[in-house]
Structures are given as structure tokens and as C-alpha cells.
């Protein structure tokens, strides 16, 4: 039910509402073998037929009575009783006969949804394998779906095209199959184009399909996911059928509605071809994100789903975080799902298998994370000091916020941080899951044979990690002469420091405001009268609170009481932030360009302080961090 369903809903609604050949569309309209169809009946793939339209070969009456498939011609000769049935008075006279000749049920809603779900599930699992085996272009399925949608749209607008498309079904002996076959084909085309909002479940299915690792678990997962897709789509298709049966306009203006449906399908194909639907989904609030994260983004779900990516990562559970020794934690999972590489020759990808004989340090990070920023200088030093001795550092950028998925943003921040080692953009968190990671930052040490030997989560343990790097380098070459250890070995204490605070309706901690936060609508807040306790946060002025960030409105202010050396805030947009520390104005920060982390204070030692921020309208605030 996420916003990603919206582009296909109008087509599914109209397709489910059109009656099939030989079906009645409204009360008192019955058609039997050899009789012309009534008003509102479809003679094409998904169309609602015009008044007096007849069904196709084998369904209409004798010569000169029934029109061809897709034709708008009226049958010139109809039985007298049936002709009377097309009028209100006739319907009253032959009521018992009309009741006896009960029309077949319109099953188009089920046919179009079944086609969509079948093609989506099949090609999500096997599409990549089939395309690779046949040597076809990667976008062939998308092009096929677009072409099919355009053809069906043209068939709805132009009856001669409909007749061509209907020929395969005119040879099917079962009338019911013939009636619903076009809707099923429409569903097959939509299934090639329908892309639900991605999450860990869909990522698990897609990656398994791309690798050809189709197990019983993956098939069950895919079927369950497809059922979830089918439910809301079927609700809309059935609603379309009910509206078509109940609303007189669907019967009296069937031809016009058929043309509108065709134009709508062609418009959808063009919107998909030019990626307009993606812009639409971005513009709409993701109103199901909280539910999705609750269901499939919990720690338990992620662990289960990560096990579906690659069995090799199961051995990572044998090792513990941050132990002061090298252990065997199993083969290093491959770097998978990487969309872009930075700082490699020509942007070419790195393969861990090609790095055998070298020690590898994988650093999971994201550029707006203050903990990662504090960790980066250590990683840069290790790369500089030990690269020639056999160490390869790879930064895996696994985004926390949507704006961190932008390759341009990551490249800009990588340059500003002075990072020269390779950086892999793990936008769908595939490699993150493969390593069963849960933290920013996180470091994994891989020996020259490709085995994970150590990992540590979060900040700290820098001296320990560097000593283990040196140990692994000596194991590769006992004669190697290593430079002295770097001087960045003083782990900073974190005890008592105010924890990171996400400005998110579902992740915020220490909020002391009244009334409660409201999702995705502007609300005017006020500071509590009794002050803000340590590690507390409050709002004043107008704010629009969302799952990922808060957007400032008129007179927007944030106040926190924190304990740390300095405070930082992730911001996006264009505007200014006025900073007050203990009631005194200390600076005004200009916000522009790439969304980034901004330093709010500049103290030399840790302290407890009251911080107030005044933001200009339109600025987006994501997270407060301390260090």
C-alpha cells in the first residue's frame, strides 16, 4: 500500500471495471449464446463496449447479427424479446426470462491482478538469469512491458488494433477464458513494469534471483510478497468493477470511457519510460515507511534476511565484536549491490578475490554520521602508512538518510574529507546485510586468504585495530619492515556523553514537548515551562515532523541540554541557523549545497550546556550528534 502502488492504480481500477464480451453490465441486461451484448460490455481486451455492441466470433448470432471483435457496429437483427429487454418497459415484461438468463460473472479484476502478480514474481526471481542466459539487453523486460502497455492502450482507442490483439483469444474454445484473457495479458504487461518500494525483503528476493540461488525459502518469500502486492491491487480492481456495475455513466458512455482508458494506459507507459513516476513517488510522503520498518527492518528480520543473501556470512556469528585477538570468522562475503565506485581507476569495481595476498580493511561509514567522521582520520592514516606494506582499505558507504544515496553527494564529501582509498556505494545496504552489520562505523579485517579475522563496531579501539593490522601484515611477510605505529591511538572516552538524537517521529529520544509529535503536518510547539533536563530536547514554533527529518516553519526553534565537548546537526536546504549557548548568541551558520553535518559549537573541553537553535523556514534537520 506504499506510494509506489499509485502509478498502476488507475489502470487496474478501470481494467477491473470493464465487462467482458457477452456479459451484462447492469441490471436488466442479459445476453446469452447467440445474442448481442448490451450497453457497457467490452468487445476488446479491457474495453467497455458501446451500446448494442456484439461479442466476437462464436459468441454472437448468425451472419449479419454479431460484430467482429473490437467493432463498434450494432447487430442489425436481434431477437424481439431481447431487443425489448434493452428498454425499461421490455425489462419489466420479460423479468423472469432475464433472471433465468443470468449473465456470467465479470472476473476481470482477478485476471488482471493474477497476470500482474505472476509476471512480477516470475521475472523478479528468474528474469536476470533468463536475460543473462539468452544474452539479451538488461532492459528488455522493461521495454517489453512498455510496448505491451502501449499496444493495449492503442487497442482501446482504435478498434482495428483491438481486433489484431484479440485474435489469439478468438481461437480459445472456452468463452470465459476468451473474455478474461485480455485482462490477464494486461496484468502480465503491468507486472513487467510494476516496481514496489524496495526494502530488505525485496532486496533479498532480487539478489537471490540475480545470483540464481532459488531455494525453497526464497520461493516462499516471493510468494508471500506477491500476495501482499495482490491484496491492495485486487481491492481497487473489485472497486472498479462495482462502480462500473452501479454507475450509469459506465454503461451509457462506454465507448468514451474505453478511449479514456486507452489514453491513460499510453500516458502511464510514457510516464514510466521517462521516469516521471519516480519523481511522483519522491514528491509524495512515504506514509507506510514506519510500518515497513517495523515489519521488515527490525534486527531479527534483518538477520533472517541477511542469511538469505549468502550462506558464507553465517560464520560471522562465530566471532565477537572487538576482541583483542585474531580469530577465524569465516570467508569474507563479496562486496555486492555496489552502485558506484569512487577513487578506483575509471570507476571500475574491486573484487575481494583479486585482493588475495593483501590484508583488507573494510570500513562501513556514511558521510553525515559524526561517529564516522571522528573515525575517518584513523582510517586515512592507516591507509597512508600501511598501503605500501600490503594493506588495502575499502570504505563501504552505506547510507542512513535518503540524500546520502546520491553519488554526487558522496563524491563531494569524500573529496572534502580527503579520502583517497576506494569507496563503494552500498545504497541498498546489500553488502551491509551480507556482513550482518548494524553500526556506523564498523571495521572488518580480512586476511590474505580472504578470511574475516576481526571486526569492531562504533568508535574507539583504534590502537587495538592498528596492532591487529600490523600482525596480519607480518603474517603475510615475516620480513616486512613496518613503520612506527601512527600517533592517533588515544581513544576518546564516551561515557556520560549525550547520545545521538534523531529528529524523527519514530526515533527521537528525550523529547519533552507538549503536545505529542504529529506526523507530516505543521504543528506549533512550545517549550515546557519547567525547563529541559539533561539529554532532553524540545521544540518551539512551527515544525513539520516526519520519519526521516523535521522541517522548520515560522519561528522554528530547537532546545537541548547536552553533555559533550561539541554539538553537531545534520542539515539540508537553504537558510541560516542561529546558535545560542546558555542564552548567549555564539554564531550564525549558513546552510546550502549538499546536505551535511554542521558543527554548532567550538569548545575545548567537555561540558554540560543548554543549546538553542533558531532555523529559517524550509530548513530540514535530521540528527543531533555530540562529541
Q: How would you sum up this structure, described in words?
A:
With 627 residues, the protein is an alpha+beta fold. 39% of the residues lie in helices and 16% in strands. It contains 19 helices and 17 strands. The strands form two sheets. Strands 7, 8, 9, 10, 11, 12, 13, 14, 15, 16 and 17 form an eleven-stranded antiparallel β-sheet that branches. Strands 1-4-3-2-5-6 form a six-stranded mixed β-sheet, covered by helices on one side. α1 crosses α10 (216-246), α5 (108-134) packs antiparallel against α10 (216-246) and α6 (140-157) packs antiparallel against α12. The radius of gyration is 32 Å and the shape is globular. It starts with 8 loop residues before the first helix and ends with a strand. The relative contact order is 0.09.
Mean pLDDT across all amino acids: 75
The main pleated sheet reads as:
11 strands, antiparallel
Please tally the helical runs, counting DSSP H or I stretches of 4 or more residues: 19
Number of strands: 17
Straight-line distance between termini: 40 Å
Percent strand: 15-25%
Helical proportion, percent range? 25-40%
Uncertain segments: 19-100
Gross geometry: globular
**What structural category arises from helix and sheet content?**
alpha+beta
From the alpha-carbon coordinates, what is the Rg to the nearest angstrom? 32 Å
Amino acid at each position: 500500500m506504499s506510494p509506489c502502488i499509485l502509478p498502476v492504480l488507475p489502470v487496474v481500477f478501470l481494467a477491473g471495471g470493464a465487462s467482458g464480451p457477452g456479459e451484462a453490465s447492469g441490471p436488466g441486461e442479459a445476453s446469452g449464446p447467440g445474442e448481442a451484448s448490451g450497453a457497457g460490455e467490452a468487445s476488446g481486451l479491457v474495453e467497455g463496449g458501446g451500446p448494442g455492441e456484439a461479442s466476437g466470433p462464436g459468441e454472437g448470432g448468425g451472419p449479419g447479427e454479431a460484430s467482429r471483435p473490437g467493432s463498434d457496429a450494432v447487430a442489425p437483427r436481434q431477437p424481439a424479446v431481447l431487443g425489448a429487454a434493452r428498454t425499461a418497459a421490455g425489462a419489466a415484461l420479460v423479468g423472469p426470462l432475464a433472471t433465468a438468463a443470468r449473465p456470467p460473472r465479470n472476473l476481470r479484476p482477478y485476471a488482471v491482478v493474477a497476470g500482474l502478480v505472476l509476471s512480477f514474481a516470475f521475472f523478479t526471481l528468474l528474469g536476470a538469469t533468463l536475460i543473462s542466459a539468452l544474452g539479451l539487453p538488461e532492459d528488455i523486460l522493461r521495454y517489453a512491458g512498455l510496448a505491451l502497455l502501449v499496444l493495449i492502450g492503442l487497442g482501446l482507442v482504435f478498434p482495428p488494433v483491438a481486433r489484431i490483439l484479440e485474435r489469439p483469444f478468438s481461437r480459445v474454445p472456452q468463452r470465459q477464458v476468451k473474455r478474461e484473457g485480455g485482462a490477464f495479458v494486461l496484468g502480465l504487461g503491468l507486472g513487467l513494469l510494476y516496481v514496489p518500494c524496495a526494502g530488505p525483503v525485496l532486496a533479498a528476493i532480487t539478489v537471490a534471483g540475480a545470483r540464481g540461488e532459488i531455494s525453497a525459502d526464497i520461493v516462499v518469500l516471493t510468494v508471500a510478497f506477491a500476495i501482499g502486492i495482490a491484496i491492495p491491487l485486487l481491492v481497487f480492481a473489485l472497486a472498479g468493477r462495482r462502480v462500473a456495475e452501479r454507475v450509469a455513466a459506465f454503461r451509457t458512455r462506454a465507448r468514451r470511457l474505453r478511449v479514456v482508458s486507452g489514453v491513460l494506459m499510453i500516458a502511464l507507459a510514457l510516464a514510466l519510460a521517462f521516469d516521471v513516476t519516480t519523481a511522483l513517488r519522491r514528491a509524495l510522503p512515504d506514509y507506510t515507511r514506519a510500518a515497513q520498518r517495523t515489519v521488515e527492518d527490525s534486527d531479527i528480520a534483518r538477520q533472517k534476511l541477511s542469511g538469505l543473501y549468502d550462506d558464507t556470512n553465517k560464520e560471522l556469528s562465530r566471532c565477537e565484536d572487538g576482541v583483542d585477538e585474531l580469530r577465524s570468522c569465516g570467508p569474507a562475503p563479496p562486496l555486492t549491490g555496489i552502485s558506484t565506485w569512487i577513487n578506483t581507476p575509471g570507476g571500475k569495481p574491486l573484487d575481494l578475490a583479486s585482493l588475495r595476498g593483501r590484508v583488507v580493511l573494510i570500513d562501513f561509514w556514511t558521510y553525515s554520521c559524526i561517529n564516522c567522521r571522528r573515525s575517518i582520520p584513523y582510517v586515512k592514516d592507516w591507509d597512508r602508512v600501511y598501503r605500501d606494506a600490503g594493506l588495502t582499505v575499502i570504505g563501504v558507504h552505506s547510507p542512513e538518510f535518503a540524500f546520502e544515496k546520491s553519488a554526487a553527494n558522496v563524491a563531494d564529501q569524500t573529496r572534502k574529507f580527503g579520502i583517497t582509498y576506494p569507496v563503494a556505494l552500498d545504497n541498498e545496504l546489500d553488502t551491509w546485510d551480507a556482513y550482518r552489520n548494524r553500526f556506523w562505523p564498523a571495521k572488518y579485517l580480512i586476511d590474505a586468504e580472504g578470511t574475516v579475522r576481526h571486526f569492531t563496531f562504533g568508535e574507539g579501539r583504534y590502537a587495538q585495530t592498528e596492532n591487529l593490522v600490523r600482525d596480519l601484515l607480518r603474517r603475510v611477510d615475516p620480513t616486512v619492515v613496518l613503520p612506527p605505529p601512527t600517533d592517533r591511538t588515544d581513544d576518546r572516552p564516551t561515557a556520560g556523553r549525550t547520545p545521538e538524537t534523531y529528529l524523527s517521529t519514530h526515533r527521537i529520544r528525550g523529547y519533552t514537548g507538549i503536545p505529542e509529535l504529529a506526523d507530516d503536518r505543521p504543528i506549533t510547539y512550545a517549550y515546557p515551562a519547567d525547563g529541559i533536563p539533561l539529554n532532553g530536547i524540545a521544540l518551539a514554533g512551527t515544525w513539520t515532523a516526519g520519519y526521516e527529518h523535521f522541517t522548520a516553519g515560522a519561528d522554528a526553534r530547537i532546545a537541548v541540554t547536552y553533555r559533550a565537548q561539541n554539538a553537531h546537526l545534520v542539515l539540508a536546504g537553504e537558510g541560516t541557523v542561529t546558535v545560542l549557548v546558555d542564552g548567549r548568541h555564539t554564531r550564525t551558520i549558513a546552510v546550502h549545497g549538499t546536505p551535511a553535518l554542521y558543527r554548532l559549537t567550538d569548545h575545548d573541553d567537555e561540558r554540560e550546556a543548554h543549546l538553542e537553535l533558531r532555523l529559517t523556514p524550509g530548513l530540514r534537520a535530521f540528527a543531533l550528534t555530540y562529541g
